[in-house]
Specification:
single chain; 214 residues; alpha+beta; 7-stranded mixed beta sheet; 4-stranded mixed beta sheet; 11 strands; globular
């Protein structure tokens, strides 16, 4: 494995391991994170471990026009049960993504350093969030954050990082909303996941992904 120095650079793609690891170490400064994302590289590691940088040989992505919305999901969207906002509660979204208990492995393990790093990216205008709210009473004066997602915007690609849901379908609502914004040519989902595949996401080669990213 190649360890990064203080200089903001990454080794050539050819050194990537079978697991998609391209380098270790470095830091989570905005400069390094943006440099990495523009090259299809992202961090993914656990607390107390060194930073691990990935650039998978196969990339899980969703082309907006290939989104699959089930009949039951269409009914949920039609009923307008939720209120959706953009970039109104980024810190709450990432905190929930970090702390919520999960029944599967969807999303990333978010350390304290990762949380701080993406909040910094948000303040700089690069990290974005979609929030899903539910009203607590009929007056619609009070609402509760019940789902959402966040990621990094690079050109016309949205690099998804994590999502959460406190009630059924809330994260899917956020994902569908993001896809239907018609703002992005591609949603980067990073690695294969059955949940994402059911929504229309599929794997493409790294070369194909990097061509779209650039």
């Amino acid at each position: 494995m190649i360890w990064l120095s203080e200089k903001i650079e990454f080794p050539p793609y050819e050194v990537t391991s079978k697991d998609g690891i391209i380098a270790l170490g470095g830091d989570l400064s905005p400069e390094r994170l943006l440099y990495a994302y523009k090259r299809g590289i992202f961090p993914w590691f656990s607390e107390n471990d060194p930073i691990v940088w990935y650039c998978p040989h196969e990339r899980m992505v969703l082309f907006p026009e290939e989104l699959k919305v089930s009949k039951s999901m269409k009914q949920v969207l039609k009923k307008e049960k939720f209120v959706i906002t953009e970039n109104q509660a980024f810190e709450e979204v990432i905190y929930n993504c970090k702390s919520i208990e999960r029944k599967d492995d969807f999303g990333t393990w978010i350390t304290d350093d990762m949380e701080d790093a993406y909040i910094n990216l948000h303040k700089l205008g690069y990290a974005k969030s979609i929030e899903v709210w539910r009203f607590l009473d009929s007056t619609q004066n009070d609402k509760e954050l019940v789902g959402g997602l966040y990621g990094v915007e690079i050109n016309t690609v949205f690099c998804g990082e994590s999502m959460f849901s406190k009630v059924s379908n809330a994260s899917k609502v956020a994902f569908v909303y993001l896809t239907q914004l018609k703002k992005y040519k591609l949603l980067d989902c990073q690695v294969y996941n059955d949940h994402l595949a059911s929504l229309g996401a599929r794997e493409i080669t790294r070369d194909h992904f990097l061509k779209i990213l650039s």
